[in-house]
């Protein structure tokens, strides 16, 4: 499924990372820079995770593309937070490049990932966020707990997904 939307007058396409292997190192750099360097991970481990992403199973990574360049990403994964291993699946690694924030790209990525999860038959999704709770609440997510992550206190959030007809 390819989705095109106009964001601030420019077309943004949401695509499977699997279709754009040349963007893997960019997504890995964003993820490692934002989270991995603080969690005893390595760039190589992070890159391996993105190389494993497919469009037909988890992990699945979506990339937002504007003017033939990646501007954001998000991943659907079986696991993300070790403290709640009984919960699955997870929205993780939502990232929009700072030059492209405040344009609605994060919302597009969230909505598309929710659709992909529904296509897999998922009834709900989970995530943790230290600083973006309001963004997710605007997309219908709700906080169900507070947890401690490698980065500090975070909201554990859940969204019930609508079944596809």
How does this model look, in words?
The chain is of the alpha+beta class and 165 residues long. It is built from 4 helices and 8 strands, in the order ββααβββαβαββ. The chain has helices at residues 24-34, 43-51, 105-119, 133-138, and strands at 3-7, 10-16, 60-66, 69-77, 90-96, 124-129, 142-149, 152-160. The strands form 2 sheets. It has a 5-stranded antiparallel β-sheet, sandwiched between helices. Strands 6-8-7 form a 3-stranded antiparallel β-sheet. Strand 1 (3-7) and strand 2 form a beta hairpin. Helix 1 (24-34) crosses helix 2 (43-51). The mean pLDDT is 88.
List keywords for this structure.
4 helices; single chain; 8 strands; 3-stranded antiparallel beta sheet; 165 residues; globular
């Amino acid at each position: 499924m390819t989705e095109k939307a106009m964001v601030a007058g420019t077309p943004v396409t949401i695509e499977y990372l699997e279709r754009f292997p040349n963007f893997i190192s960019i997504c890995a750099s964003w993820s490692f820079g934002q989270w991995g360097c603080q969690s005893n991970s390595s760039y190589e481990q992070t890159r391996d995770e993105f190389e494993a992403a497919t469009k037909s199973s988890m992990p699945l990574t979506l990339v937002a593309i504007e003017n033939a360049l990646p501007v954001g990403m998000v991943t659907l994964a079986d696991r993300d937070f070790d403290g709640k291993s009984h919960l699955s699946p997870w929205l993780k690694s939502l990232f929009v490049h700072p030059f492209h924030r405040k344009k609605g790209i994060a919302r597009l990525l969230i909505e598309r990932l929710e659709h992909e999860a529904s296509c897999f038959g998922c009834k709900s999704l989970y995530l943790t966020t230290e600083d973006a709770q309001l963004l997710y609440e605007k997309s219908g997510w709700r906080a169900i707990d507070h947890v401690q992550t490698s980065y500090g206190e975070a909201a554990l959030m859940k969204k019930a997904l609508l079944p596809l007809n």
